[in-house]
Design a protein that fits this description.
The structure holds two protein chains of two kinds. Chain A is of the alpha+beta class. Chain A has helices at residues 2-17, 139-164; strands at 20-25, 31-32, 38-45, 51-62, 69-70, 81-87, 92-98, 105-114, 122-123, 127-132. Helices cover 80% and strands 0% of the residues of chain B. The chains are: A alpha+beta, B mainly alpha. The A-B interface holds A 33-34, 75, 102-103, 134-139, 141-147, 149-150, 153-154, 156-157, 160-161, 164, 167-169 and B 14-15, 17-24, 26-27, 30-31, 33-34, 37-38, 40-41, 45, 47-52, 54, 118, 121-122, 124-126, 128-130.
C-alpha cells in the first residue's frame, strides 16, 4: 500500500512538472484491415509561458502475445510527425493522425511530444485497439490466371504458326 | 463507302491474327500483367495492399499499355503502309483517305477491346474480393475506349504528316510521355491551382483521377461528369480533326 501511494505521488509530481499534457483519441467502431481511421490528439499548454518548437510524433506497437514489437509507420501513416511553432499558455493544439490499417492484431498507439527546453518527453496514454483481419488478394485466384493467360496466347500463336506457316510473318 | 471500311478493318484483323508477330504484343501484355499479379502475392509490401488499391494499380497499367499500343499502331497506320509500299494498293481502291483513316481508327478501338479482354481476368482475379470491382471494370472499359480512339487518332494524324514510321513513332511516343507526365509528378504538387487545371485539361490525367475516385474513394458518377466530359470532348475534337484533315496521298 505504501509503495502504491509513493508511486502515485511520484507520477503526480512528474505530471505536475510537465507544462503540457497530451490526450489521444481513437475513432469509434470496430476496425479492420484496409480501413483508414483518423485518430486525433490534443496537446494543452498548462504553463504560464508560450512554448516554441514542439515536435509531436506517433508511435505504434504491436501487442500480440509473444510477438510484441514496435511497428515501422512507413505504410501505416503518411503523417508521422508534426511541428508546432508556438503553443500559447492555455492553448490547445489539435492534430489529426490519419492511419491506414495494414495488418491485423492488437496494437497500442501513443503520441509523444518533445519540448526543446525539456529533458523529458511527454507522452499520451496508450490507446489500445484491435484490427480485424480482412481477406485481400487471394493467391489461389491469381496463380491460374497469371500462368494460364500467357500460356493460352502462346498456344494460339503456335497454332497459327503451324496452321499458316510463315505466310503472314 | 461503309463496306470498304469494313473490308479494310477485316484486312487489319487478318494481319493481326494470322501473324505471330501481331500477337506477340499481346503475349507481352499478358506477361506484364502476370508479373504484376504475381508481385502482388509474392512481394511483402505489395501483398499488404487492399484490393481497391491493387485494382486501381492494374487499371493504370492497362491504360498505359493501351496508350502504347494505340500510338504504335497509329504511327504505323499510314507511315508504315507507305514504307512497306502497301499504301498504293489502298489508294487505288475506291476508298477515300477519310475511309482509310476511319477504318484504321476502328481497328485501333478493336485493339483496345482485345487488350481489355486479356486484362479482364487479371482484374477479376485481383479485385473480386474487394470493393468497386464491377464499377472499376465498367469505367476502365469506357475510359479506355475513348482514350484508345484518342491516341489512335493522334498516332494516325502524325503518321500521315511524317513520312517515316520511325520518326512518326518518336513523335507519338513524345506525346505519350507528355500526357503521362502527371503520374510522374507527386500528387501533392498537383494540388496547386495550376496543377488542378493541368490535370483537368489532360485526358490521361482525367482518366487516372476518375479511376482513383471511383475505385478507391467510391465516389458516385455525378462527381465524375466533368472529367468524363473532358475526355469525351478532347477525343471528339481530335478524332474529328484527324478524319476531316485526312490528306490526299499522291500515288
Amino acid at each position: 500500500m505504501k509503495r502504491l501511494i509513493l508511486a502515485l505521488l511520484a507520477s503526480t509530481i512528474v505530471s505536475w512538472g510537465q507544462p503540457v499534457s497530451i490526450t489521444l483519441h481513437q475513432p469509434s467502431g470496430t476496425m479492420k484491415m484496409g480501413d483508414k481511421p483518423i485518430f486525433f490528439s490534443e496537446i494543452v499548454n498548462h504553463g504560464q509561458k508560450p512554448l516554441m518548437g514542439i515536435v509531436l510524433y506517433l508511435s505504434l506497437v504491436n501487442l500480440d502475445k509473444g510477438k510484441e514489437h514496435p511497428v515501422d509507420l512507413e505504410d501505416w501513416s503518411a503523417q508521422k510527425a508534426v511541428h508546432i511553432d508556438m503553443l500559447q499558455s492555455s492553448e490547445t493544439f489539435r492534430t489529426t493522425w490519419p492511419m491506414r490499417l495494414i495488418q491485423s492484431g492488437r496494437y497500442g498507439l501513443f503520441v509523444t511530444a518533445v519540448l526543446p527546453e525539456r529533458d523529458m518527453p511527454v507522452t499520451s496514454k496508450i490507446v489500445h485497439f484491435d484490427i480485424a483481419p480482412k481477406k485481400t488478394i487471394v493467391p489461389s485466384r491469381i496463380w491460374p490466371v497469371a500462368l494460364g493467360m500467357p500460356l493460352m496466347i502462346l498456344l494460339i500463336m503456335l497454332f497459327i504458326r503451324i496452321k499458316r506457316g510463315r505466310r503472314y510473318d | 463507302m461503309k463496306n470498304g471500311v469494313y473490308v479494310l478493318i477485316r484486312k487489319e484483323l487478318k494481319e493481326l491474327f494470322y501473324s505471330v508477330k501481331g500477337l506477340f504484343f499481346f503475349l507481352a501484355v499478358s506477361l506484364i500483367l502476370s508479373l504484376f499479379s504475381l508481385l502482388l502475392i509474392t512481394n511483402t509490401e505489395l501483398s499488404l495492399l487492399d484490393n481497391a488499391q491493387a485494382l486501381y494499380m492494374i487499371s493504370g497499367i492497362v491504360l498505359a499499355l493501351m496508350m502504347l499500343i494505340s500510338v504504335v499502331y497509329g504511327s504505323d497506320a499510314i507511315a508504315g503502309e507507305r514504307e512497306r509500299y502497301t499504301l498504293e494498293t489502298l489508294l487505288i481502291t475506291p476508298l477515300t483517305m477519310k475511309d482509310i483513316v476511319t477504318a484504321k481508327l476502328g481497328f485501333g478501338v478493336f485493339l483496345y477491346m482485345l487488350l481489355f479482354a486479356i486484362a479482364a481476368p487479371y482484374i477479376i482475379a485481383v479485385g473480386s474480393s474487394g470493393q468497386n470491382m464491377t464499377t472499376g471494370l465498367l469505367y476502365l472499359f469506357a475510359i479506355g475506349l475513348m482514350l484508345s480512339l484518342l491516341y489512335s487518332a493522334v498516332g494516325i494524324f502524325v503518321s500521315q504528316r511524317i513520312r517515316s514510321f520511325k520518326n512518326s513513332l518518336l513523335v507519338n511516343l513524345a506525346i505519350v510521355l507528355l500526357s503521362a507526365s502527371p503520374i510522374l509528378i507527386s500528387p501533392a504538387l498537383r494540388q496547386s491551382s495550376i496543377g488542378k487545371i493541368a490535370d483537368y485539361l489532360n485526358p490521361f490525367a482525367d482518366a487516372i483521377n476518375t479511376l482513383d475516385a471511383v475505385i478507391i474513394d467510391s465516389e458516385p458518377f455525378s462527381m465524375q461528369t466533368l472529367r468524363l466530359a473532358m475526355i469525351a470532348g478532347v477525343t471528339l475534337i481530335i478524332v474529328a480533326t484527324t478524319i476531316a484533315g485526312a490528306k490526299k496521298e499522291a500515288l
